[in-house]
Amino acid sequence: MDPFITLEEHFLSVPIWKATEAKYSEQLKHLPKVREQLRDLDDVRIQEMDNGNIALQVVSHAPGGGALGLQENAAANDQLAEAIKRHPQRFAGFATLPMIHPPEAAAELERCVKQLGFVGALVDNHAAGKFYDEKAFWPIFEAAEKLDVPIYLHPNFPGDELAAHYKGNFTDGAALSMGTSGFGWHSETALHVMRLFAAGVFDAFPKLKIIVGHFGEMLPFMLGRICQLSVRWGDRKRKFQQVWDGNIWITLSGVWSVDPMACILRNTKIERILYSVDYPFANNQWGVDFMKDLQQSGLVNEEQYRMIAYQNAETLLGVKAKR
Prior knowledge:
The chain has helices at 14-28, 34-39, 43-51, 70-86, 102-114, 138-147, 160-163, 172-179, 184-199, 201-204, 214-217, 219-229, 240-247, 259-267, 284-297, 302-317; strands at 4-11, 54-61, 91-93, 121-124, 151-154, 210-212, 248-251, 273-274. It is α/β, with parallel strands linked by helices. The strands form 2 sheets. A 5-stranded parallel beta sheet has the order 4-5-6-7-8. The radius of gyration is 18 Å and the shape is globular.
């Protein structure tokens, strides 16, 4: 079997866990062993990778760091860097950034890439309810473009104002799930990409690289309509289709149905599609089973399968899957 590279694979550092424990408690009570897996950057994780045919895991912090300060985020990045030193053939790193403090976030990204050897950043979809179309956040995109590394825009727990919209005649647990991994935070990530486009971020930084997970966070399934209607959103030099083709990559993290791939493969360039799992919130074996289904579906040939499995990640990130 061809090796896999995965890009949305999380850990949880001690300082950020202390600040976000209340938000994670509902999720983790439904996911046995996940807390241990989140905290581990050694034997448990590597054994799970071996079981899932993963040659290289690009490790990133679980959501929550964006609204915290530089101290917590830098400590998490240093912890990850030490793990990469211990396992340089198995791990690469995406930085967590204090997005609520944009100048510090840009500087931390530069430190992580130049000094720690990280290959980009994975950041919360919003920081304390603020999206990154505001010009105050643009230095982060400027830094990423200059460093030639991607920003992985990852879903985050809804802010207090938005969370209220998910409450109704059902349990608080159902509201939290619908507002997060059940649906809401995926649509909010898609909206964020559109906000960046409408604000002119991709005109200002035409070489910016953005990754979104979970089969493109719903964007492929609305792409035709978005391209048609986004002409109303301002006089953009680069239209949404051009941005989709030139600035956006998507991963397959956490979605285990071949059916949506029929759509994605029709409107998304094959070199922009990357395998991922969303470990430990998803099981690596689920990814193995999905890739077998994809291989047998007839939707991709062997060359395209290898591109999705590991080659596209090698090209985008400058890493190599050990064979």
